[in-house]
Amino acid sequence: MWKRRRIFACFWHEKYFVLTKEGILKYHKANGTKYSKGNWDLKKANRIHEVFLGAERHPYRLALVCDEDNLLFGYDDPDTREYWYNQFSKFIDF
């Protein structure tokens, strides 16, 4: 999964994500690293949107809208995006 940076938002970075049973999404620099680089409580998200931008890198995207932060994730195929959409949706009250 790809994550768009807050600073220099034109850049995408591939990260390794772990979603806990409590709805905390943690990201690591690489698979197997011990400490996460950051995390978000998905229960604090207000909405989730599926986006397709065919001409862009990682055209299948998910946008999470939160009170404090907006997150954008990119995927290279629709099945992976759909998987993460379903996982995220378990913790978001629409």
From TrEMBL:
Instruction: Note whether Kinase occurs among the keywords.
Output: yes
Coiled-coil stretches noted in the UniProt entry, renumbered to this chain: none
**Keywords carried by this UniProt record:** Kinase, Transferase
Q: Name one Pfam family in it.
A: PH
Query: What protein am I looking at?
Result: Protein kinase domain containing protein
* Nuclease recorded as keyword: no
Give GO MF terms, alphabetically.
Answer: kinase activity
Matches recorded under InterPro entries:
PH-like_dom_sf, PH_domain
> The PH domain covers which part of the protein?
1-93
Quote the SUPFAM superfamilies the UniProt record gives: PH domain-like
